[in-house]
Specification:
By secondary structure, the chain is α+β, with helices and mostly antiparallel strands. It is built from 12 helices and 15 strands.
């Protein structure tokens, strides 16, 4: 089973263990066999139920050994079934009321989720699954990381890569195709992200020259990494002088407002459900070192992440739905414009318009494309068609006057 480093008893014969494996640390829900040995629990063994029950009676914050429990809104629920589409965590639906997520790959601490979720709760952000609670674990070096979380279950929720691709494909289906559903959805999400940032405005600070230099240096390193991993076609695109010119703007961001933002915002982090839209996964950007994942960010970084992911969704739609390329380009731009315009307008209406400086929107969008190049080269070569097309589209914006 691997080497157990620590464990938290959830109920008689049920526990949550931190286990060292060949692929790193994992949170392992376990159930005791009749002979006294332990095995990994499966949905139906009641370990997720036991976690929910424990949180339902725990104080808002409590420590048990090296584990810290944050209990916010949990209540007893029974019945377990697995979620099979979650690629980051191992998730179990409990009683059609809650989703328990076991961290399949523990990130080295410190972890940004606990403080960000607490800030959002305190400031009334309503566009996320209601957080029932979470558990963190403190390693011997004192770093604290997330091992399990419990959120409200949203029946009928659709993953962002599904709803965005479908709406884009429908809007680009042909002459006269309805684009209002796509425009409305993009505008609605813009409003949601504005409310997210307004709720996080209490964390606002100001970027230092060192922050700006760090962003520029990181972007340059990502570009070097992308060039090193790219195929010849992509490598030619990456030699464009315009890329460095765009990224240079990041070095001038000293004085920009910063917030403890989402940090890894894209369409896949926004569920569509019968009640509207819900932002999920406040774990920070997984490609960054732990000490950087918890740092505040400019609001434009979140905006750029979501806006660029709309472009990527459009490229996926073109591949799988055979839509007209010109129509696709038109609706992709429509979606981005509706999202950014709605975000800007609503953030200002909430009294926090000063948080957003769009000057480096294109630079952060470009950085996301470069990260997709590296990801595709290292882990998923069949995905390379997305950043390849996205890079050409983004560079063409400078020629055609787009932003």
């Amino acid at each position: 089973m691997g080497g157990e480093l620590d464990s938290l008893d959830l109920a008689v014969g049920k526990r949550l263990s931190v286990v060292a494996t060949a692929n790193g640390l994992t949170a392992d829900p376990q159930v005791r066999n009749p002979d006294g040995s332990w095995r990994r629990a499966r949905p139906g063994d009641g370990v997720a139920e036991a976690l929910v029950a424990l949180l339902s009676t725990a104080p808002e914050v409590s420590e048990i050994g090296s584990f810290t429990l944050h209990a916010w809104a949990a209540r007893v629920a029974t019945g377990e079934r697995a979620i099979t589409v979650d690629q980051t965590n191992e998730s179990v639906i409990v009683g059609d009321a809650a989703v328990v997520k076991w961290a399949a790959h523990l990130q080295a601490g410190p972890h940004p989720a606990p403080s960000r979720i607490e800030t959002l709760r305190t400031n009334g952000f309503r566009h996320m699954p209601c957080p029932w609670g979470l558990i963190t674990w403190r390693s011997r070096d004192g770093a604290e990381t997330l091992v399990a979380g419990v959120d409200e279950y949203l029946p009928g929720a659709v993953d962002g890569w599904t709803w965005a691709v479908d709406l884009i494909a429908t809007a680009a289906a042909g002459p006269g195709a309805p684009a209002h559903d796509l425009a409305s959805a993009a505008a609605d999400v813009g409003t949601v992200i504005a409310e997210l940032h307004a709720a996080l405005a209490v964390t606002a600070t100001v970027a230092s020259p060192a922050d700006a230099q760090r962003w520029r240096t990181a972007a340059a390193a990502t570009l070097d990494d992308a060039r090193a991993h790219a195929d010849p076609v992509m490598r030619d695109l990456l030699q464009s002088r315009a890329i460095n010119e765009i990224l240079d703007g990041l070095g001038g961001m000293a004085g920009t407002p910063l917030i403890e933002g989402h940090g890894d915002l894209h369409v896949g982090q926004v569920l569509r459900h019968p009640g509207g839209y819900a932002v999920i996964d406040f774990d920070g950007n997984p490609v960054l070192p732990p000490a950087e994942r918890i740092l505040p960010i400019p609001a434009v970084l979140d905006v750029a992440g979501f806006a660029q992911s709309l472009t990527h969704a459009a490229i996926v739609a073109r591949r799988h739905h055979r839509v007209d390329e010109q129509a696709l380009s038109r609706v992709e731009r429509l979606a981005r414009d509706q999202f950014t315009s709605s975000y800007t307008t609503h953030l200002a209406a909430l009294g926090h318009g000063g948080l957003y400086d769009p000057a480096c929107l294109r630079a952060f969008r470009l950085q996301q494309v470069l990260r997709e190049v590296v990801y595709a080269a290292r882990h998923l070569p069949r995905w390379m068609y997305v950043p390849e097309a996205a890079l050409s589209m983004l560079l063409d914006e400078g020629i055609t006057g787009g932003r």
